[in-house]
Amino acid sequence: MLVVSxxxxxxxxxxxxxxxxxxxxxxxxxxxxxxxxxxRDFPAEDLLHARFDSPQVxxxxxxxxxxxxLIVSTPVYKAxxxxxxxxxxxxxxxxxLSHKVVLPIATGGSIAHMLAVDYALKPVLSALKAQExxxxxxxxxxxVAYGQGNVPAHLAPALEQRLNESxxxxxxxxxxxxxxLAPGLLNERLISARWSI
Length: 197
Hints:
The chain is of the alpha/beta class. The chain is built from seven helices and nine strands; from the N terminus they run E-H-E-H-H-E-E-H-E-H-E-E-E-E-H-H. Helix 5 links the parallel strand 5 and strand 6 (132-133).
């Protein structure tokens, strides 16, 4: 299984990034291959000018196409998800998420931003034809403490439990999702089938 995780924060130090790292570690512990992209790693010119021919953008598109699922993690700004993340998602083809399971994750200053996942992020994922978008996780800033030195980041127990439960659901959804048929395979099977009347 291959999962592409996308971090929408432009900052190196990010609570949504902490949750994304935890999700990656959990999935890798289950034997899932995880490739992570951060919006800040793409050249600003590629995003601002929608450079579909950029090698980094094309590499991103190819891995999303191969992926079984995506985790999209973003901070909430002004009642919506990060603008750089929207720009990156806009560089994907129209049906880029068909046959894929998506787990959205968001962090914000207070629970007043919780609906940003349902009313801002999920419609974009739906427009990209995600096969299944899970309920997702929202954490307010007080639930995620940054690590310092050798001390790792800390999640509030309730958040950690919700994250683990969501990851279990995500992993199960990945395992049960139908695999698309390779082009021409159906014709091959019909031609080689034994028919009786």
